[in-house]
Amino acid sequence: MIRLALTKGRIEEETVEILHKSGYDAAELTDKGRRLLFKIKNADIEAVLAKAADVITYIEHGVCDIGIVGKDTIMEYGKSFYEVLDLNFGKCRFALAGLKDKEKDFYEGYSQKVIATKYPNVAKRYFTENGVDVEIVKIDGSVELAPILGLSAAIVDIVETGSTLKENGLVIYEEIARVSARVIVNKASIKLKKNEVDEFVGRISRVI
Ligand code: PRP
After folding, report:
1. Which helix (H) or strand (E) holds 78?
2. Engineering a disulfide at 5: which of 67, 113, 133, 169 sits with its beta carbon 3.0 to 4.6 angstroms away?
3. Ligand 1 atom showing the smallest separation from residue 158 Cα
């Protein structure tokens, strides 16, 4: 038996679709009610739907064997597992963004700037690599509010369609990284359940 950890929300629909396309009966995942644990009826596979960061936790702790999660979450929280496949959906970008009329100010002067973000590790790494000293402030949602309220000089966030930025008068200052959904595998499962993992990854890779 293998157990999958799937990310609910933004990439959930495409994740279930790719399971279907690979020949897995994911019917329980499309009609799920309040249930949390699902069976793939035509294979020896169980699946859970979880928040992205929890997918990483379940894979790292070995209670799930294979996960499907965004590269954004991997970059923020990921440490110890194998990333084996780029699924090419859930495509978006990490960007540094700020108010449209404040871009020049952001690059001027030597004072330490405040950066608001839901992804403090990604932001910290980016500014460290670029040798820029910033103060990172963690915000849990709708981070676009931070520069509007005057809390920060810019934000580091995920941009998908760009409409949240646009509707709030913000623009991209710099692109940091491109992200998409990935398949990750627990370090022990890749050896101990080699055949099952190969079978699953192989079937998925043939339809992407
Ligand atoms: C993400 C992100 C942006 C928005 C970008 O937030 O943090 O706010 O989506 O998408 P867009 O470019 O297509 O407009 P999410 O919807 O996950 O919610 P949150 O801000 O409440 O965390």
Report:
1. none
2. 67
3. 2
